[in-house]
Structures are given as structure tokens and as C-alpha cells.
């Protein structure tokens, strides 16, 4: 892979006016600044909750919680299927081969793109990249233009909707990227090594257009995907730019939510944003995921202050080298360990993920957690189950008396969860335990990570947690 020389022209604070949320009526009112800032401790970007009205591309304000749960289920199924794809003992049947583009309204050029696709991904259009994912901004092209992007630790390829949208682009915040307007844009030929990497990066085969341009197919579970041209251009954050960045120029984009332009992939793969910037910034990133009522948190790429974190080894799984795994070692409620055998905690591969809302635990662990939390909240009126959430209470998470829940990881790192990390409000008068049981893949979701600083140090193969990263 090409090195990305760091253009250190200057590291002035680059600011974009962004509003602060007024929680009482769900609008953003006062002003703070989005930051895109490179200094000796790396690149620092503002991160917004997908449902915060302060997000530059917020989800619809009337999005019901059921849509979040539905999306979460699809994401879990997708992550589990990624693992299954690589597991010889549970290899799923090969994808169906109906044309990806079949049935879509095609604009000029769509037919050609369709005809050039060697294969397809087994998906139907409809929902959901980004319901659970946080968003930030990224600049692209020369001169640079700014795009709202969802940030995803569970995938690698960065892509965005791209003019002329041969098949389909969704409405997005701001104009769609136009490669013809960039003096540094280039398509990537099929013979390039980056084209060869796509199978590993997206777990879908690449294809080759009639004009020898490499075509990527990125898919995200039930029904969302992006297909288009593998491309190369200068990516920038504020005044700092990185030439020669490989990404997808999406011509058929199905299932984008919240009017973002595309997705930033941060998983462990040569084509991820992390790995492409790493020669300049280093192989690590950290974030603080804000709550929905907060204006912003941060995403930082590159060096970080190591002292503040407690660490757990980054676990690896042969099932998927690109995802981030951890080893859960124990859970306690009000200081008492759950009544399960310690081996239960590690009985499933456990992914730590930025885009899954609800944490999934091995069924025996979940059952013990649910019982312990319900017992600790014995005086609180119960509410009926809500979809996959079966431990619900009348009231809101911020008002109920919620027991301390600690999640411990191998090596001693601990997430000491606050009430907002334990219960999630599903409607105005009901809060549910934000955990669910799973039989195949455990996931540490983003409700539990909110307000903690979390560092992914790929170079040293460890993950760290620190309280008090953002609000
Ligand atoms: C770099 O910038 C970030 C974000 O503005 C700030 O929090 C951090 O303290 C800065 N680091 C140094 C070493 O100046």
C-alpha cells in the first residue's frame, strides 16, 4: 500500500459552527464548534449521536425505538454472518445470484455498471446503515468539500454517495460528491492490489467495469449496501490533508439513514481509514460516544494519552481478523458477582462495536444479569417486555434508582456502568435493561460505552477504557 505523506501545512483549529441540543424541545439552540484538529496527540474529530438534533444529519425525530431495535438485530445478524462466513463448520449456502441492480430504476450509466458486475450480494433494498452509528465529517477532493459520514468499527471500506449516482443515491445533507469537480480524483484499475484486497475488506467479490475500473460491493446486513467504483483522492480533516486515499465512489446506495453521505470504516484491514492514515498517525484510535442528549463526543486517530486508561488485551478470532474482540471476564451488580460460572463469560466470541446499540451476552450470563438487576430494583414497578428487551421498568433511566453494574474484562479493565449505560428509555414512560441474550456472537454495544473514552491500540493489541470522556 502506498504511504500517505502527512501534509503538516498547519494544525490550526478548524471550526464549523454547530448547535447544541436543547433537550427540552429536541432542537439544537446554542452554538459550540465542531473540531477537526491535528496536533501532536493525533487527529481529533467531533462525533455526534445519530439521534442528536445537533448531528449534522440527524435521524428523523419521530424514529420509534422499535426501528433502533430492528436495525440492531440486523446488524448483529450481519456481524454473526461475517464470522460464520469464515467458519468452515458453519459455512452458509453461497449467495443467490439475482442481479444486484435488478428492479431498480436506472439512470444513464446504470445499465453499464449493472452489466459489468460479475456477481451480486444477496440483499434487498430498504433500511438501515447508520441507525446506531455515530457521525462525523470528512473532507474529500481538491478543492476539499465536507461530507457527513457514519463511523463504523465493524467494517473497513470507506465509501460515500457519488455523482452521477448511476443507480441510486439517497437524499443527503449537503451536495453529493462529484468526482469531476476534484482535481485529484482517480479511479482504481482492476489490476491494482487494492482491488485485489476488496474480497477481504468487504467479504464480497470485486468486479471489473468495461472500462477496467474496479467495482466494490459493501453490504451491511439485512438490506443496506453500497456498490460503486473503487477510487482514490485526497482526504482531509480541516486544514490537514492526506493524498492517495482509497475509498468507494458509490453509484448504488441502499439503506442510508439520517441523510449522511457515506461511511468511514475503522476495522483492522489495509483499506480501512485507520490503516491508510496509520503510516502518518499511528495504528490507534480512540473515541467517546456521547449520549443522545449531549451535543458531541470525539473520535481521535493516532497517538493518545496512555496513562488514563485501564486495558484489556485485544482478543483475536480466526473467524474475522478485521473485527475487534475482547474477553469479558465478569459482571457484577451492586458489587456482587453474578451467579454464573466464570467460563460462561468467554463462551462466545465477543465483539466490541460502535454501531450496535444493545449489548448481547451469552444467554446464561444475560439471564443472571436480568435477575440480579430486577432483584436490586425490586421496589420499582415493572413494565411489559419491549421487543428483545425483557427486563423493563416504569419510569425513565435518569429517574430510576439503578444498581451499579460493572463489566470486567481480561487483564482487569472494568467498565463501571452508570444508570444511563444500564437502562435505555424505549418510550416516555418505560426504561429497559439495555442487554439481550445471544446464542452465537456476544457484542459490547454502544449504550454501555457511552461517555467512556475507549482506545483501540492496534499497534500494541490492547483496548483501554477510561471514565469521564464526554457527556
Ligand atoms: C490536541 O487537541 C485535542 C483536541 O483539541 C486536545 O484535547 C489535546 O489536549 C491536544 N493535545 C496536545 C498535546 O496539545
Automatic annotation (TrEMBL):
Protein known as: Peptidase A1 domain-containing protein
Species this chain originates from: Zizania palustris (Northern wild rice)
UniProt entry keywords in alphabetical sequence: Signal
Pfam families per the UniProt record, alphabetical: TAXi_C (PF14541), TAXi_N (PF14543)
PANTHER family the UniProt entry points to: ASPARTYL PROTEASES, PEPTIDASE A1 DOMAIN-CONTAINING PROTEIN
Keyword Cell membrane appears in the UniProt entry: no
UniProt-annotated stretches for the region Disordered: 82-112
PROSITE patterns listed in its UniProt record: ASP_PROTEASE, PEPTIDASE_A1
MF terms in GO: aspartic-type endopeptidase activity
Family indicated by similarity: Belongs to the peptidase A1 family.
Keyword tRNA processing appears in the UniProt entry: no
Cross-referenced InterPro entries: Aspartic_peptidase_A1 (IPR001461), Aspartic_peptidase_AS (IPR001969), PEPTIDASE_A1 (IPR033121), TAXi_C (IPR032799), TAXi_N (IPR032861)
Amino acid at each position: 500500500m502506498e504511504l500517505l505523506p502527512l501534509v503538516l501545512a498547519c494544525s490550526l483549529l478548524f471550526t464549523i459552527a454547530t448547535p447544541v441540543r436543547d433537550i427540552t424541545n429536541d432542537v439544537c439552540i446554542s452554538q459550540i464548534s465542531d473540531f477537526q484538529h491535528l496536533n501532536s496527540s493525533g487527529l481529533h474529530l467531533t462525533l455526534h449521536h445519530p439521534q442528536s438534533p445537533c448531528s449534522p444529519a440527524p435521524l428523523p425525530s419521530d424514529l420509534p425505538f422499535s426501528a433502533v431495535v430492528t436495525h440492531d438485530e440486523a446488524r448483529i445478524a450481519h456481524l454473526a454472518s461475517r464470522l460464520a462466513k469464515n467458519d468452515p463448520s458453519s459455512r452458509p449456502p453461497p449467495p443467490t445470484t439475482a442481479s444486484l441492480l435488478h428492479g431498480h430504476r436506472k439512470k444513464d450509466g446504470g445499465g453499464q455498471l449493472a452489466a459489468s458486475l460479475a456477481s451480486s450480494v444477496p440483499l434487498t433494498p430498504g433500511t438501515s446503515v447508520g441507525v446506531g452509528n455515530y457521525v462525523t465529517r470528512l473532507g474529500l477532493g481538491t478543492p476539499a468539500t465536507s461530507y457527513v459520514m457514519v463511523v463504523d468499527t465493524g467494517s473497513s471500506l470507506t465509501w460515500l454517495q457519488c455523482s452521477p449516482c448511476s443507480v441510486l443515491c439517497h437524499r443527503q445533507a449537503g451536495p453529493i460528491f462529484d468526482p469531476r469537480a476534484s482535481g485529484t480524483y482517480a479511479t482504481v484499475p482492476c489490476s491494482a492490489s487494492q482491488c485485489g484486497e476488496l474480497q477481504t475488506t468487504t467479504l464480497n467479490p470485486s468486479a471489473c467495469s468495461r472500462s477496467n475500473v474496479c467495482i466494490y460491493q459493501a453490504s451491511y446486513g439485512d438490506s443496506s449496501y453500497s456498490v460503486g467504483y473503487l477510487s482514490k483522492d485526497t482526504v482531509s480533516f480541516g486544514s490537514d490533508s492526506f493524498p492517495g486515499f482509497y475509498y468507494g465512489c458509490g453509484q448504488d446506495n441502499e439503506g442510508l439513514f439520517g441523510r449522511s453521505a457515506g461511511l468511514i470504516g475503522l476495522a483492522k484491514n489495509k483499506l480501512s481509514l485507520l490503516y491508510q492514515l496509520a503510516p502518518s498517525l499511528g495504528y490507534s484510535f480512540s473515541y467517546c460516544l456521547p449520549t443522545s442528549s449531549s451535543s458531541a463526543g470525539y473520535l481521535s486517530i493516532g497517538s493518545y494519552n496512555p496513562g488514563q486508561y485501564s486495558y484489556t488485551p485485544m482478543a483475536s478470532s480466526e473467524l474475522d481478523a478485521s473485527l475487534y474482540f475482547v474477553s469479558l471476564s465478569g459482571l457484577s451488580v451492586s458489587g456482587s458477582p453474578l451467579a454464573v460460572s466464570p467460563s460462561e463469560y468467554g463462551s462466545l466470541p465477543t465483539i466490541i462495536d460502535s454501531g450496535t446499540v444493545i449489548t448481547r451476552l451469552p444467554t446464561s450470563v444475560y439471564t443472571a444479569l436480568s435477575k440480579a438487576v430486577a432483584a436490586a430494583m425490586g421496589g420499582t414497578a415493572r413494565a411489559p417486555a419491549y421487543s428483545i428487551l425483557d427486563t423493563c421498568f416504569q419510569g425513565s433511566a435518569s429517574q430510576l434508582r439503578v444498581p451499579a453494574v460493572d463489566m470486567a474484562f481480561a487483564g482487569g479493565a472494568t467498565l463501571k456502568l452508570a444508570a444511563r449505560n444500564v437502562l435505555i428509555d424505549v418510550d416516555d414512560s418505560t426504561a429497559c435493561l439495555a442487554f439481550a441474550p445471544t446464542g452465537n456472537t456476544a457484542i459490547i454495544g454502544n449504550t454501555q460505552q457511552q461517555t467512556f473514552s475507549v482506545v483501540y491500540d492496534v499497534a500494541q493489541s490492547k483496548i483501554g477504557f477510561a471514565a469521564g470522556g464526554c457527556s
